[in-house]
Amino acid sequence: MPPPPQRGRGRGYQDDRQGGGGGQRGGGGRGRGYQDDRQGGGGQWGGGGRGRGYQDDRQGGGGGRGRGYQDDRQGQRGGGGGYRGRGAPRGRQDRGGYGQSRGGYGGGGDRYAAQSRQQWNPFPEGPGSHPKREKVKYKGADLGIEIKLSLQDSNNMPKKPPPGKLGQKIKLMSNCFAMKAPSGYVYHYDVEVCNNNRQSTTTGKETAKSKKYVCLNTKRNREVIDKLLSTNPLFEGAYGAYDGKKNLLCRSKLNIVGEDLKCAVHVPKRDSIPVPGTEQQMDEFEVVLKPVRKKESNDCAINLDTLHAVYADVLKSPPQDAVMALETILRHGPCMRFTPVGRSFFYPPLDTDLHPLGGGLEIWFGYHQSVRLGEWSPIVNLDVSSTAFHQAKKMIDLIADVLEVDPQGLHNMGTMRDYQRKAIDKKYRNMQIETLVEVANKEGIEIEPATNIQTFNPHQSSMVDILGNAKKRFKADLAVLVLPGGKAKDSIYKDIKQAAETGVGLVTQCIIDKNLTDRKDKTKCSLQLVSNLCQKINAKMGGVNNSLISGEMPAIFREPVMIIGADVTHSSPAGDLHDGISIAAVVASLDKHPSRYAVSIRAQKHRDENKESLEIIVELDKMVEELLLAFFRHTKQKKPRRIVFYRDGVSEGQFNKVREKEMSAVRRACKRVQNDGYEPPITFIVVQKRHHTRFMPSDERDGTGRMKNIPPGTTIDTVVTHPLYFDFFQCSHTGIQGTSKPCHYTVLHDDNNFSADDLQKLTFYLCHTYARCTRSIACPPPVMYADLAAYRAGKYLSEEEGSSSGSSVGGASRSSKQSKSSSLTSEQLLAKVQKEIKTIDFLADTMYFV
């Protein structure tokens, strides 16, 4: 006979909630479990004991029966002990604190044991009938979970390590809010909305011009779908959520016979004013709905319970379709009430709260909203946002504001200065010729392109001669040039950089004349300016400005290591002539400090064959090969034993594709350089700067600066981070104005087996080695250098094609350039751009771009 149970209580996981405990013959009493006052589990036969739960070396205890993890389900068996505490060693299956056999968080019992002591299926059948699904049993079936849906469980991301422990802990506040994920199914349908002219408002080839009307189309689409959902009886109880384009989610399955469902919808015409006694004018639309069938199940159902499975350690890959569904559902309501732009929502200002910007623009305020997976549950990220909108006014008044003129004084035709006339000439040159050609083509009259006459830019040619003569006469390695102020400096600066770096091979440093004298003392130069110039010149000439102290250097630097940074710039300042061309830049360290970097630049297509944005660096293998050879030259034929790759500009949806393509490209480069089994371990890290996650210290005494921001070096790797990925937020810089914006780092591949502390320390220390300043910066310098190099290459294109100083024949030089450019194939245009951005060879091993 078992001994009589003895009562005991203990504290649970959080917030002093009491937890139960006990083994099969131990533990007594009841206690509260993990959340919401649910009672913790106990043992089959009760038992005694008293102890505390999960953290801080508190002892586990207790026993007896109790309720399970969710929905008042009772646990079957218990297990005492604490996680990380003295109750039970970490990893024991009989623990009650946090282990496999826990019941709730803080008591014993099976993790998902039902009240009837049968297995709980976390994937209940949703409303409506479903096709037969293949049963797939995952590892972890010992938890009592059997998944009845064939899901892709192919997470090749590095395993998430334990959180870092270095440094002093401070309590932070965040603008991320936990949400309770729903259960069951939602059903995914493809939407096509056609107007009465049979033109689709949801499909079609996207062009630069069509982007201007995206907001108008999505607003109209939402009006149509809202009318459909509210008036058509087929959608009663469907609770639809629409994204404004191609996706409709419904809570219940629609009765679609055949491949699609077609519905006619009538909505009031835009700007139509209803007149009493008459029918309001209506527009007719046809809506076509098609189920989006999944490959795994041949069904359009999206299982929201996969979110629960992630947090139950059953699924090892994040369910992107379920996260997308949550995002669409939460955005549906705000999109109907506010004006959506991207992931933000804006509302018009009140008449008493206007913020005009001039030029017919004003500021609208709103908020950003996004959904992602947190460590313990899905989270919603909310942040204030603002953007510029055109003011709502009469068109004549809006035009007057844009042109900054007074309509009342238009009859007084004043004189125009030369610089004003030149700006108009540059903008509207050849308008008559281009209009004539356009109209003639519509009427069937073919006009051949203007004869392409070879021209040259005398200003650019003279700059090459000046710099070339200076280099030859004085055997100069560096030229310091003083530029005039005003609008002319930008054009001259571009000429100098393009001539020096693509034609002459000379390192240059430019200074604006007005900065040569101190504002207070006109007789001397500012000491701050001199310091900045010296840092830039020293870096360009191969010097070292900042380096890590040998005693504080991360362990990875004990042997040769190469730090790589990469970025792709999609927007070219050259305008239409190079539309569709992106510039990729990759830099790599050459020394152990690391402070010296080499660079490789390539032009590539902006979109792939599917017309999707091409974020992959196409020739990364060749670029890394060039950088490895540069490393060999600067280290006396030593090869890097390890590679750490920081990649900028990749969204979470592109992680798998970037990891697959670019990791294999780096490996190919290593084998190509030395074909003797050279395979250095590689760590591939994505750096994300464009996000809306913010942190503030809960106690102002932990803050720094006037704004009391989080101190530099603050690292967050729990709660708001991904439940499966190795990621963290880190604020490396001092916030001087506004709220500090940390960088988000996600490790896509890790052969070096970094611990959280080691990688976070390496990243933070690198941020102190930026050549252009003496303080730490927000992200690692390789990322900044790659961005600067890509931007500099774009300037070469801007100056050559955008200059108005070249000669013209018959007023058609620009038109002939456009005709010539349009006659080139995409491959020819790509080769042309690559030739234009190529620098002199030896400059590739210097930091000319800082």
UniProtKB/TrEMBL annotation:
<dbReference type="Pfam" id="PF02171">
    <property type="entry name" value="Piwi"/>
</dbReference>
<feature type="region of interest" description="Disordered">
    <location>
        <begin position="1"/>
        <end position="113"/>
    </location>
</feature>
<feature type="compositionally biased region" description="Gly residues">
    <location>
        <begin position="76"/>
        <end position="85"/>
    </location>
</feature>
<feature type="domain" description="Piwi">
    <location>
        <begin position="478"/>
        <end position="798"/>
    </location>
</feature>
<feature type="compositionally biased region" description="Gly residues">
    <location>
        <begin position="96"/>
        <end position="110"/>
    </location>
</feature>
<dbReference type="InterPro" id="IPR003165">
    <property type="entry name" value="Piwi"/>
</dbReference>
<feature type="compositionally biased region" description="Gly residues">
    <location>
        <begin position="40"/>
        <end position="52"/>
    </location>
</feature>
<dbReference type="InterPro" id="IPR045246">
    <property type="entry name" value="Piwi_ago-like"/>
</dbReference>
<feature type="compositionally biased region" description="Gly residues">
    <location>
        <begin position="19"/>
        <end position="32"/>
    </location>
</feature>
<dbReference type="Pfam" id="PF16486">
    <property type="entry name" value="ArgoN"/>
</dbReference>
<feature type="compositionally biased region" description="Low complexity">
    <location>
        <begin position="803"/>
        <end position="820"/>
    </location>
</feature>
<protein>
    <recommendedName>
        <fullName>Piwi domain-containing protein</fullName>
    </recommendedName>
</protein>
<dbReference type="GO" id="GO:0003676">
    <property type="term" value="F:nucleic acid binding"/>
</dbReference>
<dbReference type="InterPro" id="IPR036397">
    <property type="entry name" value="RNaseH_sf"/>
</dbReference>
<feature type="region of interest" description="Disordered">
    <location>
        <begin position="801"/>
        <end position="820"/>
    </location>
</feature>
<dbReference type="Pfam" id="PF08699">
    <property type="entry name" value="ArgoL1"/>
</dbReference>
<dbReference type="InterPro" id="IPR032474">
    <property type="entry name" value="Argonaute_N"/>
</dbReference>
<dbReference type="InterPro" id="IPR012337">
    <property type="entry name" value="RNaseH-like_sf"/>
</dbReference>
<dbReference type="InterPro" id="IPR014811">
    <property type="entry name" value="ArgoL1"/>
</dbReference>
<dbReference type="InterPro" id="IPR036085">
    <property type="entry name" value="PAZ_dom_sf"/>
</dbReference>
